[in-house]
Amino acid sequence: MNMRKVFALLAAISCVMAMSAKTYTCHLKVTVNDMPTEQDEVLVEVNKSDNTYDLSLKNFCLVAGENVIPVGNIAVSGVEGVDQYGYTTIKLNAPVEITAGDDPTYAGMWLGPNLGEVPLDLTARFTDTAMDASIDIEMPGMAIGVSIFGIAPTLKGDVNDDNLVNIGDINTIIGIILGN
User: Fold this and answer.
1) Is residue 139 helix, strand or coil?
2) Per-domain residue ranges for the chain?
3) Cα–Cα dist 71/106, whole Å
4) Are 108 and 70 a contacting pair, CB within 8 Å?
5) In 33-101, which ranges are E strands?
6) Which residues, including other chains, have CB under 8 Å from residue 98's CB and lie 6 or more apart?
7) What is the pLDDT of residues 50-80, one digit of tens each?
8) Can you tell me the distance from the alpha carbon of 43 to that of 57, in angstroms, rounded to the nearest whole number?
9) What's the rounded Cα separation, in Å, for the pair 85 and 164?
10) Is residue 83 within 8 Å of 110, Cβ to Cβ?
11) Integer angstrom CA distances of residue 98 from 17, 36, 70, 103, 126
12) 3-class DSSP state of 3
């Protein structure tokens, strides 16, 4: 193997090691103009590369009774994270474009791509095992609020990484829920 191939291989390995992804199974609380809607569990993926994060909520739908409005994928990328009190916080207040989801049930019905840029206010807090987020979307005549709370499937007892399973772990989870 020549030296170029060795360096290319080492660079690829370094890139893979610098990135990490975590998928959280989350519960949603969604309000539209302060009216609650019913929601299913969703998966939220958070990817880390260096100290920036990508967060995606795929196949987002608004559900009211038997009515389903397929919205699409809400994703942000390159958001700087702040590590404090045992969890990471990311915040973004910027317009984003909602892309079509990939759930074949709603093929051709996704509303998001027709909206253009949507004003998004996002705050998310997470550890390796739990996350919560709030997403506010203010559009003319419509205010959408999304509250998300979830856990990673590999929940461990030591949530705050102090090498002890104790009340501190519970306090960390409560702090994430309350936004402290």
Assistant:
1) strand
2) 20-178
3) 10
4) no
5) 35-37, 42-49, 52-64, 67-84, 87-97
6) 60, 71, 72, 73, 74, 111, 112, 113, 115, 118
7) 879 999 999 999 887 888 999 999 999 999 9
8) 7
9) 15
10) no
11) 29, 21, 11, 15, 23
12) helix
Measured CA to CA, the distance from residue 9 to residue 117 in angstroms comes to 39
At 133, which amino acid appears?
A: A
- What is the C-alpha to C-alpha distance for residues 99 and 153, in angstroms, rounded to an integer? 26
Residues (pLDDT < 70) of the chain are 1-19, 153-161, 163-167, 169-170, 173, 176-180
Comparing C-alpha atoms, which of 96, 42, 43, 101 is closest to residue 71? 101
The amino acid that residue 40 corresponds to is: D
User: Alpha-carbon distance 22 to 2, whole Å?
Assistant: 36
CATH class of the structural domain 20-178: mainly beta
Give bridge partners of residue 47 from the DSSP assignment: 21, 54
Give the rounded percent of residues in the chain with a pLDDT score beyond 70. 76
Q: How far is CA 160 from the centre of its chain?
A: 20
Residue keyed to tokens 């501190």:
168
